[in-house]
Amino acid sequence: MSAHPTEVLVEGSGGTGVVRRTLFPSGLRVVTEEVSEVRAAGVGVWVGVGSRDESAGVNGATHFLEHLLFKGTERRGALDIARAMDAVGGQSNAVTMKEQTCYFAQVHDADAPTALELLGDMVTSSTLGEQSFENERQVIHSELARRADNPAQSVSDTFERALWGDSPLGRPVLGSAESIAALSREDVSEFYRARYVPSNTVVSVAGNVDHELIASRVAETFGGWCERPAEPVAGRTRAAVYPEQPGVLVRQRESQQASVVLGCSSLTNTDERRFALGVLSCALGGGLSSRLFQRVREQRGLCYTVSTSGAHYADTGLFGAFAATAPEHVDELIAVLAENFDEVAAHGITDEELAVGKAQLKAVLVLGSDTANARMTKIGRGLLDGDVIDIDRALALVDAVDQDSVREVAADVLNRPRALAVHGPFESDRTFRLPGREPAGSN
Predict the structure, then answer these.
(1) Closest by alpha carbon to 174, among 52, 61, 317, 318?
(2) Domain Peptidase M16 N-terminal, which positions (predicted)?
(3) Is the same domain home to 199 and 253?
(4) Residue 295 belongs to what domain range?
(5) Residue 128 maps to a domain
(6) So what's the pLDDT on residue 36?
C-alpha cells in the first residue's frame, strides 16, 4: 500500500479506543477508532462540501447530489445498492449539512469491508442519471413540504435567514421550491466534479475493526482515488461580511401555535470556549430545572416546551432559544426570553446551575459516544474540522469550566446583536418588537 505512515491521533484510554489516521498521496484520509468491546462498526465517507459552498442560484445542489448518489453507479443501479446493504442487515443513510456531507452505514463488524466498498463506489463512481435527477427533484419537493410542516425546523431556517441574511449560511440546506425547480443536472454535476475529490474526503470507521485492514480495503475499493496526485479544492463560498445588524423575520403559518426563535451569532467549531457555552446552554434551557423552563413554562405557563441549542462552523456559530406558544402570548414570550438573556449576560449563572449544567453536558457527550456510528461521526467530522477531540479530553474540558469562563462567554455571546424569527397565524401587517429594536412585520 503506497500511503504515508499511519499516525496515532489519540491513545486509547477510558472510554476511548485508539484513533489512527492514514493519509494517502491523493490527500484522501482514513481515520479509525478501534473499540474491541462492540460487535458493530460505523462506516462513513465525509466530504467537505455543504450548503454554504453554494451560490444563491444553485441553493440546494449539495443536498440534491446526496440524493443522487444512492441512485446508481457505473457498476450498480439503485436497487443493487439497496440490496447490497440489505443483504448484510446494515442500515445506511446520508446527511447534508452547512459545511459537510456524510454517507454512512452501521453494520456487523465483519461486514465493514462490504459497507466500505459500497459507499466508496457511490462516492467515486456515481452516474447522476437524467431520469434519476427528475425523479429526485419531485422527492425533494416533498421533503421541502414536510420540513415546512415541522414548526421547529421551519422556524429554525427562518432564524438563520434573520441572523445571516442572504449569505450562504443564511440559506436553507434543502434549498427552496424555486431553487430546486431551477436546478439543472449540470449544476449538480459541477458540484460533484469540483468537490468530491480525495483531498476533500475523509473515510471514517469506528468499532471492532483493525486500522491497517481498513486502510488496505480503502486502497482496494476507492481505486485511483488513493494514489493520484492531490488536487486543490475549490474555495469555500462565504459572505464577505455578515449582516451588521441581524433581522426580525415573521412568516405567516396556519397553525394553532406560534413558534419563536431568539438568538445571536456564536463561537467557531475550534473555539474551546464552546464547552463553557455548552454548560451555559444546559443551565439556561437544557432540562426541566433549567432557568428558561422554570420561568417560561412553570412560572408563567407560556409554553409546553422551551429549549436552547447552538451550532458551530468554521468562522462563526449560532446560539438560540426555541419555544412555541399561543399567538396572543408571543410578545410576552419574546420579552421573557430577552430578559433572561440579558440577566445571564450581566450576571452569569448560579453555582447550582453551573454544577447541573456541567453534569448534563457530560451526560450528553458520553451518551452521544455510545454507538459505533456516533464514534465514527466524532472522528470523521472532527478530522474535517481540524481537531479530533476524544471523549476523555472533552470531559476534561467540561470539568475545567468554572464561573469565570461561563461569565466570560455569556458576556461575549449573549451581548451580540440578536435575531428573531416568528411563525404563526398572523395578519400580513402584524409586527413584533425585539427589545431594543424597531418592530418588524410579516413577509
Answers:
(1) 61
(2) 29-175
(3) no
(4) 248-441
(5) yes
(6) 87
Please indicate, yes or no, if residue 129 is contained in any of the structural domains: yes
What is the three-class DSSP state of 323? Answer: strand
Question: Do 212 and 260 reside in the same domain of the chain?
Answer: no
Residues 182 and 276 in one domain: no
Q: Is residue 41 part of a domain?
A: yes
Which residues are the active-site residues?
66
Cell matching residue 402: 468554572
How many whole angstroms separate alpha carbon 321 and alpha carbon 337?
Answer: 8
Cβ atoms 425, 310 nearer than 8 A: no
DSSP 13: B
Mean pLDDT by 10 residues, the chain (443 residues): 69 79 95 92 97 94 97 95 92 96 96 96 95 96 97 97 94 97 95 94 96 95 85 69 83 93 96 97 96 97 96 96 97 97 97 98 92 95 91 94 98 96 85 67 49
Same structural domain, 77 and 35: yes
The CATH number assigned to the domain holding 91 equals: 3.30.830.10
Total domains present in the chain: 2
Region of residue 346 (phi > 0: left; psi between -120 and 50: alpha; otherwise: beta): alpha
What is the distance, to the nearest Å, from the Cα of residue 349 to the centroid of all Cα atoms in its chain?
28
d(CA 100, CA 116): 19
15-42: b (≥16 Cβ within 10 Å) or e? ebbbbbbbbbebbbbbbbbbbeebebbb
Other CB atoms within 10 A of residue 6 CB: 15
User: Is position 364 within any domain?
Assistant: yes
Is 154 found in the same domain as 16?
yes
pTM to 2 decimal places: 0.93
For residues 420 and 261, the answer to whether their CB atoms sit within 8 Å is: yes
pLDDT on residue 32: 97
Collapsing DSSP states into helix, strand and coil, what is residue 226? coil
